[in-house]
Write a structure and sequence with these properties.
Layout (H helix, E strand, L loop, with lengths): L2 E5 L2 E4 L25 H14 L11 E2 L3 E2 L1 H10 L9 H4 L4 E3 L9 E5 L6 E11 L2 E8 L3 E6 L10 E6 L4
Antiparallel strand pairs: 1-2, 3-4, 5-10, 6-7, 6-10, 7-8, 8-9
């Protein structure tokens, strides 16, 4: 069981959902202690843990903070920025940050990008939280539901729009 501290005076129990470890594909509940993870794996885990604290947060066009709400790129920019990884301001520019990655090689902590048509303009970005037999799970800020977690592989809206992925954490 994990405890996630939301602020100095409040805490909540983290959901008991399993998240795949990037290199062993085992449940997060069986990950080694953080001290035995590589710094890159630990950073990925920390960003995912932070992202889940904002589930249910409202969407705000141009929003880049927990106080005002988030748009999709404001959300990813905030998450990575709190860990000293600076991203460009928009989803259409974040697709050039970091290193390109095949959808087949995704790891938790990577970013995935969406366009309305093949070769079209990027309009959305999401953070990969888990890859398992049921698909690719992401957390993202959507204009209709705010910050939510979605299995994009099973989602009729998001699945056909997935066009790219980036590793912005690096080696």
């Amino acid at each position: 069981m994990w405890i996630v501290f939301v602020s100095c005076s409040a805490f909540r129990e983290a959901p008991d959902t399993a998240t795949s470890h990037p290199s062993t594909n085992t449940s997060i509940n069986t990950w080694p202690l953080k001290s035995s993870l590589s710094s890159k794996e630990e950073l990925r885990l920390n960003i995912i843990e932070l992202s889940k604290q904002f589930l249910g947060r409202k969407y705000r066009s141009g929003g880049k903070s927990p106080q005002t709400g988030f748009d999709c790129s404001g959300f990813t920019g905030y998450l990575f920025g709190t860990h000293n990884v600076n991203l460009s301001a928009s989803s259409s520019s974040q697709i050039f940050d970091g290193n390109s990655k095949s959808i087949n090689d995704l790891e938790p902590g990577d970013l995935v990008f969406f366009a309305r048509s093949p070769g079209g303009r990027i309009f959305h970005v999401a953070l990969v939280t888990n890859i398992d037999n049921s698909g690719i799970h992401v957390i993202h800020s959507t204009n209709s539901n705010g910050v939510i977690e979605t299995n994009i592989s099973k989602d009729a809206y998001w699945a056909p729009k997935l066009v790219g992925a980036r590793d912005v954490i690096g080696n």
